[in-house]
Amino acid sequence: MHEFDLIQWIRQQQSPDAHVLLPAADDLAIVRFDPKDLILIGVDQVLDGVHFDLQSHSPLDIGRKVMNRNLSDCAAMACLPASAVVAWALPRKIDPETVKQIYTGIKAAGDAFACPIVGGDTASWDQRLVISVTILGRSAGITPVRRSGARVGDAIYVTGPLGGSILSRHLTFTPRIAEARELVSQYPISAMIDLSDGLSRDLAHICTESGVGAVLDADLIPIHPDVRQLPGDALSHALDDGEDYELCFTGPAGINRAIRVGTTIKEPGLWIEKAGERRIVKPGGFQHQLQN
Ligand SMILES: [Mg+2]
């Protein structure tokens, strides 16, 4: 299949959208937003062999995951996804049907949140598959929530059970956009992040950006049942496993629709308390290592 055939096929997949004045067809797409909206922008790339495995994961699942990671970043700031573009580095020998399936997964994930794919770029090379999604979000009446707003004495919450996502949920999660928008419209949420790298690492980002510390209550941390199928300490999995894609946020006490796991404190660092004993937690979530 020639690259232009693939691009032609991709163009045919686009559906009309009120925000999209000109979809992928020209040098740039044209989108229109409400002038009151703030526009948010982010990019995320996934690599075969690092974020997914083309040999063992289904192309549809890979596509969904690529898109949902970006949508989860929209959830983290409580904005609505508005449109996205996708850049591909294709292995020369990849089956065009595989690419179409991945695209179908990307589009399905976007469609679920009214986020059209309005363009992109393809190139081929002798290396493994790389897919990069750039997403635009819009504030749509809600001030974006940052990582830096937590104050000493805030309650810390997560939106669901944690750990063991590697068994399947890293491919099948639902971005918490609706939950984020509801929470932020009802409560003064002070800081928020999506759990891509693990609670210990991502909560540490909130702490660093906000200039606070945090103490977690070991008995309150919700451990996903999947963790039972993995060797090792269950609590460590809940703290350190990446790709749960739940939200972690800070705000007032008494928010019943999320699970309270701790409190922010003045003393810097991340701590965990069990049976009245407090110990420091080293951020242990997933971290990409650069190799020489
Ligand atoms: Mg994120």
Question: How is the secondary structure organized here?
Answer:
Blueprint: H1 3-12, E1 20-22, E2 30-31, E3 39-47, H2 59-77, E4 80-91, H3 96-111, E5 117-125, E6 130-138, E7 155-158, H4 169-172, H5 177-186, E8 191-194, H6 199-210, E9 213-217, H7 234-240, E10 247-251, E11 259-265, E12 270-274, E13 277-280
Parallel strand pairs: 4-5, 9-12
Antiparallel strand pairs: 1-2, 3-6, 4-6, 7-10, 7-11, 8-10, 9-11, 12-13
Helix pairs in contact: 2-3, 2-5
The protein binds magnesium ion.
What does this structure look like?
Helix content is 27%, strand content 27%. By secondary structure, the chain is an alpha+beta fold. The strands form three sheets. A seven-stranded mixed β-sheet has the order 8-10-7-11-9-12-13. Helix 2 packs parallel to helix 3 and helix 2 packs parallel to helix 5. The protein is globular. Bound molecules: magnesium ion (MG). Magnesium ion binds next to helix 2.
